[in-house]
Amino acid sequence: MQSRNYTSTELILRLLREHILPHKRHLATAVVCMFIVAIATAANAWMLQPVLDKIFIERDREMLTLIPVAVLTIALFGAVGNYGNTLNMRYIGQRIIADMQIRLFNHLVHSDLGLFHDQSSGRLISRFTNDIALLRNAFSTVLTGIAKEMLSLVFLVGVMIYQSPTLSAIAFLAFPLAIYPIIRLGKRMRKVSDKTQMQLGDFTSTLDEIFQGVRTVKSYNREKFESERAGGIIEGLFKLYYKAIRIQAAASPLMELLSSASIAGVIWYGGFQVMDGETTTGAFFSSIAAFLMAYKPVRSVAGLNSTLQEGLAAASRLFSVLDTQATIIDRPGCQPLVISKGHIAFNHVTFHYNDSGIGIHDVSFEVPAGKTAALVGLSGSGKSTLMNLLLRFYDINSGNIRIDGQDIHESTLHSLRDAMSFVPQESMLFDDTIRANIRYGRETATDEEIFEAARNAAADDFIRQLPEGYDTMIGAHGVRLSGGQRQRLAIARAMLKNAPILLLDEATSSLDNESERSIQQALKILMEGRTTLVIAHRLSTIVNADIIHVVENGRIIESGTHQQLMAKQSKYYHLYAETLHHEVDHERVI
What we know:
Elements: H1 8-20, H2 24-46, H3 48-57, H4 61-109, H5 113-118, H6 121-163, H7 165-171, H8 176-212, H9 214-219, H10 223-275, H11 281-322, E1 344-352, E2 359-367, E3 372-376, H12 383-390, E4 398-403, E5 406-407, H13 413-418, E6 420-423, H14 434-439, H15 447-456, H16 460-465, H17 483-497, E7 501-505, H18 513-527, E8 531-535, E9 547-552, E10 555-560, H19 562-568, H20 571-589
Parallel strand pairs: 3-8, 3-9, 6-7, 7-8
Antiparallel strand pairs: 1-2, 1-4, 4-5, 9-10
């Protein structure tokens, strides 16, 4: 997934249209407060003229009372405006970030499975963490800063022009020279930020791999290798961060140099005007004060450009994800799938992964209603792909798949998947309680239904032996349970769903022999009266299947019962003999 090359203008307009303008009330309040702050800032600069001319030069006692009151009044208005502006703009910024995160998650969770296969989890997580952090920084500092500082700058320039148009021209003569280098620095910052965030995504993915596979790392004594690999990535990130620091550091000295040159010119020319009587001391110092105050927003805007470009680079990556359209969607006019019997038919189905030629080739087979069909074959033969196609995790290239005569591609996705209970080879459990993990199969299930599902999955006994029973937290991916225990919970979840079609993708592969034997009876109860499609790891577990299909290189090469296929002494015969040999050896070792 490549980030589209959005221009800064496109990104700003899109952020404005989709995320800022919906908060019109808070935005309008913030703008009013910004005007108050800007006017108060300019008024402070303007007040220097009467302070010097009326109090210190003309010694007007009435002004000695009025001017301090005016200064305090201006300060009060400025403080209120500043508070209102900060409060409303921070609200908008945080609301935008929250909305963006919700939108991003909703988009991803409804995206095609292929997106998660093409992108590492680290990169996707990086969008939620690193990119959102940059966007939050941009909104909280840039959105608040630029708007307020620019308004203040406008009013301060107005004061300077009012006091002395010539001095104003001299003061700001050098600043146009800074525009080009600041823009160049911003473009460089955006490129560096983009590279940094890509590497952060890779780093997050690497950390996830290492931490998930820490037992493998330690068992092969690869700690040093992984430390060096992670160290290399961190060093690369350090260089990118340091490059960004150099770019950010360049803006401030540039503005300091230009402002010093401007101040020198203003003092030189303004001094002549005061000496020649062309302007008053108060007017001159009011202009100088306005210029010095205007320098702060100019410098802030220049510095914020780098932060803005970082935020825009993050927004570009986020929009690239959001603009990725799902292709596995409900087609126009599709109807809910209605299961009457549960008969499944694959008719001349062909599917290739990304036009690679790897996949399924003209496959036709049936799973009779209420019967059990098994898919067997070597790893990579296409068994799991066939099950993925039935669930519409991917869409076929040609042919059709029908359930009770209804094309699944003309049925709603929700009704299709609602009709199936799926137990994958690698049981996926969440960092929650055992109760919550089983209830994931059916949200409205009662506790008694959860207990019954656990009993049927031969899980109730070990659950009740745990200190907190069904309320035991199992950790990320169920790390606090054994492989067999995790798989039993996954089977209990499928039992609780109680769907008419059951899909078992090597569902007992994580069980030891004793656990597998104890759960086979539970699976028989679960399969009874249901259409069941099984991918078998141990062929001894599917000898009683109503029909067995042998898959090789994406094709069905043999079909029949166990007895029929054994009698042919072909591919299935050799697969069965080989797996039975391995199972016997495994039991001897145990």
